[in-house]
Amino acid sequence: MTWTDAADAADPEDFTAAGRARGLPYEEWPEPWRAAYWAFHRRMRARYLEWAYLQLGSDADAEDAVDATFDKLADKWCQMLRMDNLPGYAWKVLKHRVVDQARMRGRRAAPMDIAAFEAALTTMSHDPFEDLAEALAAYHEIRRLPERQRDVMELRSCLGFTTEEVADLMGVKDATIRSHMSQARQRLAARLREDVEGTADGEKQ
Q1: Is 180:148 a contact under the CB 8 Å cutoff?
Q2: Are the C-beta atoms of residues 131 and 124 closer than 8 Å to each other?
Q3: Is the dihedral of CA 185, 128, 109, 77 positive or negative?
Q4: What is the pLDDT of residue 108?
Q5: SS in 3 state form for 129-198?
Q6: Distance of alpha carbon 148 from alpha carbon 179, whole angstroms
Q7: Which of 7, 44, 121, 150 is 20 to 30 A from 114 in CA distance terms?
Q8: CA–CA dist 57, 101 (Å, integer)
Q9: 67/190 Cα distance (integer angstroms)
Q10: Cβ 113 vs Cβ 139: under 8 Å
Q11: How far apart are CA 202 and CA 179, in angstroms?
Q12: How many CA atoms does the CB half-sphere of 124 hold within 13 Å?
């Protein structure tokens, strides 16, 4: 059973009529609610961890942020079952929890140099230091993109998720992901041209 199948069977109206839905303890959830929650947990947790690690550079911090995310989702699960875009809401919660986790550790979210280093190690060519420098530069440019484009580029290009997986994760349509990818690539290409032209002008002076 997928989480959507379980969610279809989980009617929050079963409890709202009695005025008990808000803040209902997990022990009192009807079985369809539990099935939907754990199906969603199984489907998303591994992906959430990958993205959180990319932002935080620490397995422990990533796990803390993701666990805190699912705690928050459990608190809101009844309301979420009525949402038109449950995955989109969950994605926003995850992003906020990652920022909170980074703040608690006294650092900015997204130490992308760690991800760049690991990416370079897995794709080394004749010159690993050149690969690392290029990866660092690429991640630096990705971090300058608008938020949605940045998220999509990180998930697609840095983590290797498919368009369908990213759309599922963010709660949007496949076409939206493709549009964000196209816009992000255009921005990155334009900045690359600017950097090349700037370097060439500097060498002429």
Answers
A1: yes
A2: yes
A3: positive
A4: 56
A5: HHHHHHHHHHHHHHHCCCHHHHHHHHHHHHCCCCHHHHHHHHCCCHHHHHHHHHHHHHHHHHHHHHHHHH
A6: 11
A7: 44
A8: 11
A9: 39
A10: yes
A11: 35
A12: 8
Q: Identify how many contiguous H helices and E strands the chain contains and give both numbers.
A: 11, 0
Could you tell me the sign of the dihedral formed by the alpha carbons of 59, 63, 69, 72, in that order? negative
Domains of the chain and any CATH numbers: 3-104 (no CATH), 112-204 (1.10.10.10)
Residue pLDDT, tens place only, 127-177 = 544 554 455 566 778 888 999 999 999 999 888 899 999 999 999 999 999
CB 139 within 8 A of CB 112: yes
Residue 103 has which token pair?
């703040």
Instruction: Give the C-alpha distances (Å, rounded to integers) separating 161 from 51, 151, 170.
Output: 10, 12, 12
